[in-house]
């Protein structure tokens, strides 16, 4: 079923995403250092990814300009990494599918599950990783990423 595929991505799929992605829009990023969205973004920066903060509450996060929504971002995004409540993800995906060019992946952080949002992304040719932590997966697979 689609949900099995979405909930349990293969290591091959995860490696491909981690290897080929460069620009990651982090939706719901916090300025609070103890929040996973903040610490995971810092980890990703340290490992060579470009982070684009998306949170209307802030003008900048981690010394990077913060955008109030995805449609304001002037550059191409590879991955939209979501740190919002599961209920909010459908509206986020509705924004994602309006982007030109479209991002390759919508990645929902561990604990975030929204089947409807996932199906909408997939229907529009955007792959989905759901209920997974990018830092944990990167850390686990990093020997194979070199």
Overall geometry: globular
- The SSE order reads HHEHEEEEHEHEH
Query: Which strand order do you get reading across the main beta sheet?
Result: 2-1-5-6-7
What is the CA-CA span between the terminal residues? 33 Å
Q: What CATH architecture would you give?
A: 3-Layer(aba) Sandwich
Model regions low in confidence, pLDDT < 50 over at least 5 residues: none
Strand content: 15-25%
CATH class: Alpha Beta
Q: Structural class given helices, strands, pairing?
A: alpha/beta
Number of strands: 7
> Percent helix among the residues?
25-40%
Task: Give the rounded overall mean pLDDT.
Answer: 95
**Which oligomeric state applies?**
single chain
CATH-defined topology: Rossmann fold
Total of DSSP H or I helical runs spanning 4+ residues: 6
List keywords for this structure.
146 residues, Rossmann fold, two-stranded antiparallel sheet, 7 strands, globular
Task: Describe what you observe in this structure.
Strands 2-1-5-6-7 form a 5-stranded parallel beta sheet, sandwiched between helices. It has a two-stranded antiparallel sheet with strand order 3-4. It is built from 6 helices and 7 strands, in the order ααβαββββαβαβα. Helix 4 packs parallel to helix 5 (115-123). The mean pLDDT is 95. It has one domain (2-145): NAD(P)-binding Rossmann-like Domain (Rossmann fold, 3-Layer(aba) Sandwich), CATH 3.40.50. It has 146 residues and is α/β, with parallel strands linked by helices. The protein has helices at 2-7, 11-20, 36-46, 89-96, 115-123, 134-141; strands spanning 23-27, 50-54, 60-61, 64-65, 79-82, 105-108, 127-129.
């Amino acid at each position: 079923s689609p949900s099995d595929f979405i909930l349990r991505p293969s290591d091959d799929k995860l490696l491909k995403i981690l290897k080929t992605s460069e620009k990651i829009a982090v939706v719901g990023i916090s300025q609070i250092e103890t929040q996973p969205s903040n610490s995971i973004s810092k980890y990703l920066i340290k490992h060579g990814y470009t982070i684009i903060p998306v949170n209307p509450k802030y003008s900048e996060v981690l010394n990077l300009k913060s955008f109030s929504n995805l449609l304001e971002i002037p550059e191409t995004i590879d991955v939209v990494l979501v740190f919002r409540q599961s209920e909010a993800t459908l509206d986020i995906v509705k924004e994602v599918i309006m982007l030109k060019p479209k991002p390759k992946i919508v990645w929902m952080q561990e604990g975030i599950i929204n089947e409807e949002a996932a199906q909408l992304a997939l229907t529009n040719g955007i792959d989905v990783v759901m209920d997974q932590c990018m830092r944990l997966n990167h850390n686990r697979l990093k020997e194979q990423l070199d």
